[in-house]
Amino acid sequence: MNAFLALYAGQVSRARAARVPLLFVATLQSVGILLLLRGVVDEGSRTTSQQVVAGSTVLVVAFVALNLLSQRFGLLRGSGALDHYATLPVSGSLVVLATAASYATFTIPGAVLTSIIGSLLYGLPLSHLWVLIGVLPLAGASLAGLGACLGLLAPRPELATVAGQLGMSGVLFLGIIPEKRLPEVVQWVRAAVPSTYATDALASSFSRHLDAGLLVQDLGVCLVVSVVALSLASASFRRAVRA
Amino acid sequence: MTDPAPTRTVSVSLTHLIRSHKDGTRVTDDVTLEVLTGEVFGLLGPNGAGKTTLVRQLVGVMKPDSGTVSLLGRDVTADPRSASGVLAYLAQDEPALNDLPVSLAIETTGRLRGLSKRDARAATEVLLEELALAPLRDRPLTRLSGGQRRLAHVAAALVGDRPLLVLDEPTTGLDVTARRAVWDLLRRRRTEAGTTVVLVTHNVLEAEQVLDRVAVLDHGRVMGCDTPGRLKALVSDDVRLDLVWRADPPLEDPTVAALLARSTVDGRRWSARLPADVARDALARLTSGATLAALDDFTLATPTLEDVYLALGGRDSDLERG
Hints:
B: 2 domains; about 35% helix
């Protein structure tokens, strides 16, 4: 635990200066999408409104956890910085977890702000916003795990950056457009992407009556994906270190 | 530093280590070495000699094609992670630390080596004082000069009191004062805690002043391994004559022509390794005749480890002299 906290504190500290402007950009991007689509989405289309607000909120997480983290691990690997951790008595999983946790922490203010602004803009109830407490860490963990994998497996740092950005675009596209409007093939892709379940869980929280069963099911998928993604990231770390 | 006692145990044992590039070129060519506990042991060689490749295998982050690495009785070849429990490694650069403020970089590394937060803080304070880094404690490493940053890396390597320190060119970029502070600190660690140090260097002065024993490396091979004194005894009859010419050297002079044939030439700087009597004789003739007017400067020096490297068959010497 001492090692985890040390890594986490170190990551938060190094990120403070650089990440705040980036987080501002991430939030602005999502709020911009909310404003843009406000003119397009019909007043009465409640499901679409829920989807747009939830998708924009998860996009903040994707920007930081998927895009920035894949860049970070790509750079760590490319610069030989992984040797530093490999010669310290800490496991790769711990480095991945602590880094992912610190990045996920930075998504909280932006995601909360985006969902509140979205709810107000689209006239959605804020009463079940507590669902964010479950959605943010799980979406953060699963997307951060995937971001770390991309960064650690990419042969070059630039490829890690491109992969992270493509991943984020995927989250944006699949998260914001309501499922029923997507072609069937894309619906299959949507079902395979972990952010979908975080988006759906959050979207359901914007209804007046929360379907607890569905919420638990969505969050359960997020949890499983988080465990798998972080395990994969740990394995990728070990592979990158001993290459 | 004094010679190590002959009864000490072995801390590092490398046996027939081989590592090759994909094209088959050996970057580590059948290296067998032993480092005794409490010894300050050096790997000296020019850039590209294979020093870093060798230490990366030693610390367990690079797998040898064949051969074994044993650190304090642990088989690192079979279990690379076991190295992290006994050693601290300072790489040529430490990009993982570079965004952190100095004190946090040292403290975090200490905690990752198993110190409690409190102990890591206390150890950080001591190192900040010892290496005169206290005024820079809150500055991120990226905003320091190259030398200051290197000193912070050294501090991070020293925190946590590991019994074995593996330092890849720890004093590169440091000024003389900082360099001496690092050397003093390593000496103190060895004397007080019996710390074993494996130090990579391409600086001859560092090798001669700090190391108990040194392995001279070239093209992945160990060309010689002994105390600096005994290695220099191999070439003790020789001296080095360095000449700097003011203008084009008078090549028609037979002494000058003979010297040119035995010198390595770098612009107007000539450096020749010669038997002492030959060098004395050549210098006497150069300074008494008309050639003196063309000479800007000259030095006659006893052999250094660079001369040993060249005498052992070393090529491409870009070893630093100071």
